[in-house]
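Need tokens for this chain, all 74 residues.
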Amino acid sequence: MAASSTHQWFKSSYSGGNATECVECAHVSHGTLVRDSKQATGPVVPVGSEAWRRFVGAVGRGGMPAGLETACST
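Here are the structure tokens for all 74 residues:
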């Protein structure tokens, strides 16, 4: 999926100040879009609403959803 300038993209308040390791997100009706902030016109990863909710909830509790560690390391 290509990035769109019509979405309202935002960075996490936890993003590093040096702008070397950051992603941007945009909420859409079916979930959330994620992209590399340094490549605004690059690829976009769509994440479904339920998956995004579980991810944000797990991160807020200091953990990761079951199986996500493996998926992220491949």
